[in-house]
Amino acid sequence: MSTNNETKQATAKPGDSIKVHAPGTVANLVCGFDILGLALNEPCDEMEIKIIEEPKVIIHHKDNYNLPLEPEKNVCGVALLAMMDKLDNKFGFELTVTKHIKPGSGIGSSAASAAGPVVAANKLLGNYFSNEDLVQMAMFGEKLASGVKHADNIAPCIYGGITLIRAIHPLDIISIPAPPMYVTLVHPQIEVKTSDARQILKKQVLLKDAIKQWGNIAGLVAGFIKSDYELIGRSLEDVIIEPVRSILIPGFDDVKAQSKEAGALGGGISGSGPSIFMLSKNEAEAKAVEVVMKDIYEKIGIEYYTYVTTINNEGVKAIGN
Amino acid sequence: MSTNNETKQATAKPGDSIKVHAPGTVANLVCGFDILGLALNEPCDEMEIKIIEEPKVIIHHKDNYNLPLEPEKNVCGVALLAMMDKLDNKFGFELTVTKHIKPGSGIGSSAASAAGPVVAANKLLGNYFSNEDLVQMAMFGEKLASGVKHADNIAPCIYGGITLIRAIHPLDIISIPAPPMYVTLVHPQIEVKTSDARQILKKQVLLKDAIKQWGNIAGLVAGFIKSDYELIGRSLEDVIIEPVRSILIPGFDDVKAQSKEAGALGGGISGSGPSIFMLSKNEAEAKAVEVVMKDIYEKIGIEYYTYVTTINNEGVKAIGN
């Protein structure tokens, strides 16, 4: 693991503390399965981390999600243990977490848990580690949560904005500039486990479908960098994952079709679901999309949360006390 | 078929003529199978087209490739017949072609044959048709040549630069800006038929390979638009098509490895082969790559041509008499 500066010392003194917001994230972005993700300004988790003398990790949760407090079984804890190990266990961390991103929502709850603490700790360490180092540590947390060491939520959570994971071995993360966009999310209160959502995917895909998919990915990336909203909209199409996974989400087809009628550029499953996200060019459209989403889940009779937010270009950020 | 301007009239009078260069093209660009392509400044075909009164297509070839002269069996002819049809057979075309791009080279010989005449004719018609219309007409020629109506050579031949075919139905062509680059090509004089090269591909691919591929395509497009040469180099990787097709090209692995050692950013099979292309940041590296290529085919004992050229940003262009 490389550090920003090999000659730098990791300095922090017991008692030092910082509060951060760790943002929710949307992974996949329809056609970019396992490679694309974006960070949200809402929802986000709140965390306070304190350097302690003893080389151990202490975790407090101020939320009601009944998450395990033993660091080896806690997503935040596993990431912090990975960092402690890199620091030769010279000191420890005490973390207080208030999760607002509901676990299992598909909005990067575990990525926020994994990324927030290590970014926060790194701020206390004078940015001793690079962003890429932090992604590597946070991936231990993601592995605990989903069984897979993936980075498509962690990368945007740490870097902010839209990120591309070009490759995992070795890790190659690219920031993708994009024009301003609004994100409307609906989280229908049903459970879709990431592991189940992964299980139902076919191991093989038709070459002709893969070609369609990479045309759309290339179009989406070009659309983002060229600030071409029309191209972004046309490219938000997934012929491989969505047709399989959307079956697990009641109301999906209606949400997608009616959101586009209401003005959304496009959208689809957020991560592995059950949340659905839609991108819009302006706030009025994003709010019209929210109305559509509410109507649909009221009719179906499933509880839901909605968010209308924007892309978070900073990632995990320090907040006042 | 839409035209640039529905109220415009296609005007051209018998006797009007124009000469054009129709450029060679590199399709696929390693990871962008069937969706990406770029136009070359060399080699290119020379064509002169003349409007004639009688609604028919007359073709003369000044090269020695023994191509059929009946318009229905000639790639240029088929494209021109498609255009004549759109013009309600009000007049005809007489075409004189000197092909410099050897058929079967993998450098877009059939695309130049198909695109050159319709772009040239359109110049005489006051650009009555849009570029997209011209691609549609030229695709008839490509279909005659390879059995498949693909546009990944035709689009860069007509638009110039690097093009993305995001989708075929309906056709969606995106110009991808890119930094200056040199292209070194070697055409080993062996025959690889496009239809054979397509036949040996598996109809299904592993999802995990498809994910690697779309990471690289996204990286390549981002690298082009962001003028990030390092990213372009890292993204020029193909885990799906190249491992299968490169077996048909003697010396391929050596050319690729030694070209990169000589300074190339990367490269691979040009179209369906047998030509191999390499992208370089500057001319010195591109020429060093040419030396490597020559050495390899001298040793193997296969005849070859090489080219050191640049990206052609204009596509088919008018030339003086």
Automatic annotation (TrEMBL), chains A, B:
GO BP annotation list: threonine biosynthetic process
Domain of life assignment: Bacteria
Reactions it catalyzes: L-homoserine + ATP = O-phospho-L-homoserine + ADP + H(+)
Pathway, per record: Amino-acid biosynthesis; L-threonine biosynthesis; L-threonine from L-aspartate: step 4/5
Main location: cytoplasm
GHMP kinase C-terminal domain residues: 221-296
Domain GHMP kinase N-terminal: from-to ranges: 79-161
Keyword Nucleotide-binding: yes
UniProt keyword terms in alphabetical order: Amino-acid biosynthesis, ATP-binding, Cytoplasm, Kinase, Nucleotide-binding, Threonine biosynthesis, Transferase
GO terms under cellular component: cytoplasm
Enzyme Commission no: 2.7.1.39
UniProt cross-references to InterPro entries, sorted A to Z: GHMP_kinase_C_dom, GHMP_kinase_N_dom, Homoserine_kinase
Protein location: Cytoplasm
Gene Ontology molecular function terms on file: ATP binding; homoserine kinase activity
Job description of the protein: Catalyzes the ATP-dependent phosphorylation of L-homoserine to L-homoserine phosphate.
Annotated HAMAP family: Homoser_kinase
Similarity annotation: Belongs to the GHMP kinase family. Homoserine kinase subfamily.
Protein's UniProt name: Homoserine kinase
Organism for this UniProt entry: Pinibacter aurantiacus
Protein's gene: thrB
